[in-house]
Amino acid sequence: MIFGRVKSLDAILATAERKSLHRSLGALQLTLLGVGAIIGTGIFVLTSEAAQKAGPGMMISFIIAGAVCAVAALCYSELASMVPVSGSAYTYTYASLGELLAWTVGWALVLEYAVAASAVAVGWSGYFVGQMRGWFGVEMPLSLIAGPYAGGIINLPAVIISLAITGLLIIGTSESAKVNAVLVGIKVTALTLFIVLALPVMRMENFEPFAPQGWMGAGGSGVIGAAASIFFAYVGFDAVSTAAEETKNPQRNVPLGLLGSLAICTIFYMLVASGAIGSPLGAQPVLNAAGQWLAPGSTELAARCATISAAGVEPLACSKEALAHVLREIGYLKIGNLIGLAAFLALPSVILVMIFGQTRMFFVMSRDGLLPEKLSTIHPKWKTPHIITAITGIGVTLAAAFLPVGKLADIANAGTLFAFLMVAIAVLRLRKTHPNVKRAFRVPAVWLVAILTILGCVGLFLALPSDAQLVLPVWGAVGLLLYFAYGYRKSHVARGLDVVPDAPKTPGAF
């Protein structure tokens, strides 16, 4: 029975020991890895969309999305302390709920990591084009900065950054982490500068009306609808758990990295949102001439924004570089431009962590036999899974080169929410069936925390646009076809290759 294919904890740890990754990351590097994954497109770009959906109420949207991530992070921390190997939610599900569900989780996480990496690469391309125009007066041809969907041929800047990040990850994890630390420093400095300049001139009257679209309005508007989209601003913190096998003292450092990075980013988000809302621009949604709300990304909103901007100041909800735009309106023109430059320099760190997480996911699935084992080959010099890293990088590059960004954030959210839900279920199941397994970190009030995680994930998923909701089952169906065509027959658990007869039993092991 495929639902009975549960991989034992001893087998998981023994498999990792036979073909292991080099442990080189500490708590600080993991925290920076998490901050690098979290702070990016969400806060630099999606602030405008949140303003259009929820107005000043987007502050509550940040809190709701952050709260769901916080309870999910507690569940991740317990499982990572029990199973400190690569694979994240996939491995945890394999150890508790079985192979089939583990495969669906791993496959769903492709929507988080690879799709998000492609989306950020395209977003970075826009910043690159803007920087070339603003600083050097160079206007790049449309054919080289957009895919066929936008009248071009290929998004060359997105291709270049995707390949560069892939090459860096092939060279080595420690080297990648050092570069990531520099990029995280740039992002944190930029956001700190924004907070210092924006908060002193905050206008409290701009916070009224606080929730012009209510809690749940039409077309995914309202505070809850904005939370479902702004959830993308937190996506990536779970990439810390995928690095467990490359972490020194993972039982201590993985929980610190998860919770530390989430706490740092939540504080920044709340302060940045306050500065943006209180600025002279305000954060009220853009309405049409008849006073009706317009959906983000719609042609109607784009036309209305063009009309308003031509007659005066561009609203926050219309800006593609929200934070830089706010500072320019406050009077800090040059610093606003530097914030745009900081986003341009720092967004590659998000691509790095997304591709990193995806390669480690495929690595462990290959190591379990669900994907061809050749993919999990470790490079003799660089000690990285170079083959799967190259393949993942090529996939991300092709998507970034030719496909539209459009709904990618919501699609990535759908895959992430499914994985978070499965992690919460795994924590509950393992507490019940194997209470004696050593847990260096234990979720406090586990039943409450896990149930809140499940309810939060389901609620945010239902608040996503319907097309994003439909992508998950369609993508899952494709994954099931692949599983039954290859993984079902080649699985190490099915073939009895995961048996560890001579290994000492972990207390309370499966």
From TrEMBL:
UniProt-annotated location(s): Membrane
Pfam family, one: AA_permease_2
Transmembrane segment boundaries: 27-46, 58-79, 100-129, 149-170, 182-202, 214-235, 256-277, 335-357, 387-405, 411-428, 440-464, 470-488
Record-level GO cellular component terms: membrane
Keyword Aminoacyl-tRNA synthetase: no
Taxonomic superkingdom: Bacteria
Keywords associated with the record: Membrane, Transmembrane, Transmembrane helix, Transport
Membrane topology: Multi-pass membrane protein
Molecular function terms, GO-annotated: amino acid transmembrane transporter activity
The protein, known as: APA family basic amino acid/polyamine antiporter
Organism: Sphingomonas prati
